Amino acid sequence: xxxxxxxxxxxxxxxxxxxxxxxxxxxxxxxxxxxxxxxxxxxxxxxxxxxxxxxxxxxxxxxxxxxxxxxxxxxxxxxxxxxxxxxxxxxxxxxxxxxxxxxxxxxxxxxxxxxxxxxxxxxxxxxxxxxxxxxxxxxxxxxxxxxxxxxxxxxxxxxxxxxxxxxxxxxxxxxxxxxxxxxxxxxxxxxxxxxxxxxxxxxxxxxxxxxxxxxxxxxxxxxxxxxxxxxxxxxxxxxxxxxxxxxxxxxxxxxxxxxxxxxxxxxxxxxxxxxxxxxxxxxxxxxxxxxxxxxxxxxxxxxxxxxxxxxxxxxxxxxxxxxxxxxxxxxxxxxxxxxxxxxxxxxxxxxxxxxxxxxxxxxxxxxxxxxxxxxxxxxxxxxxxxxxxxxxxxxxxxxxxxxxxxxxxxxxxxxxxxxxxxxxxxxxxxxxxxxxxxxxxxxxxxxxxxxxxxxxxx
Length: 458
Ligand SMILES: Cc1cc2nc3c(=O)[nH]c(=O)nc-3n(C[C@H](O)[C@H](O)[C@H](O)COP(=O)(O)OP(=O)(O)OC[C@H]3O[C@@H](n4cnc5c(N)ncnc54)[C@H](O)[C@@H]3O)c2cc1C
Fold this sequence. Notes:
458 residues; binds flavin-adenine dinucleotide
């Protein structure tokens, strides 16, 4: 395992918990803060939870943590899929979900200033009132926070066209481990003064500082959206169709793939009948002034491989998007779910899908697959019994083999969920010694005592 060994043995969580603002040591708060939605089983709950209400609360907590050498685990809405906000005994959780105000929306500059606990969907609902939207839209939009999105560089369904969180953050207000406040970025569209500290903090999984405010880029709502649902005999054909759309040089705003077993789980949860129409499904949306022209190109690319239908109205399109958004919750009804997050070059989707089927056959682990197909980002989902853990046995073997499959195809360990606790074993394989050394040095420079989210990410 790639770890940095911080000496936190002198830590006294009791001293911090006595002096910090809005502390809870209630069993249910500590239990809830001990894990996320990754399927990770924590060994023990944290010693306490600080529910920050303001940037001052964050400053005060981090100053105490530095003084008493207490490890602090930042937490947003706890919907992460890499156990990056998981915590254990000897740690204190700093929960910023209560800092949840939209401070300003500027329709002329097309930006929003928000606190970190604002939910992704809440920001979108507010922006819609101005004819604008915030582009990164994880399938968890209704339940995940902007701070968590920034700390994981979250992606989503619309990222196909509009990019991931990194492309929508203008500036950040961050509290460093020692309590100092840092401003990164700027509120203009362009600007290159100094190193790009936004990029450093985006995706840093709570290891470099706590985001207490963010200025985000909004975009005009598309004038029109066109939706195609395509059904295929098998998932390899769906993957080939997705690669054909990319090769046709159209730019879908969304291209989501689901395999047959996932369709079955969605049907069971929603009472729909998608599985009866094919063994795999591709949802392709195009948007903007050319939406329906682009749709014709999509149909031309996909039709040779599957049966296509155009959404008849907005309600029909929304139902198709809901089916995709409900994929993970539907599988969670079947058992404990651990979600892979590999990325591969977009022309190799069919190969990776075939490789996943082989891994499932070899390890005996049930793997369901969905993908943000236009980004080459797949979510192979391992469904286990409730008492099984992804950190051991066949599920862990399957996870490791998925990574090696992605690497062999020129891909990556994690497209959007982050490394957290669950993927550290394979980090060095992907990054190499020099990159890892540089990253450890950056972390050490910003958090010399090693109090921020120890044991996670790098
Ligand atoms: C049903 C479902 C669907 C999902 N779909 C997607 C998807 O399509 N795309 C995608 O990218 N993800 C998806 N996710 C994963 C998850 O929602 C995202 O990773 C999200 O960005 C996590 O946000 P959160 O507020 O829940 O963060 P948490 O889980 O609370 O924390 C995640 C990480 O961020 C850190 N953190 C949180 N807040 C702050 C802060 N203010 N400052 C510094 N660090 C902080 C934590 O320490 C941790 O490292 C999905 C999850 C679920 C359950």
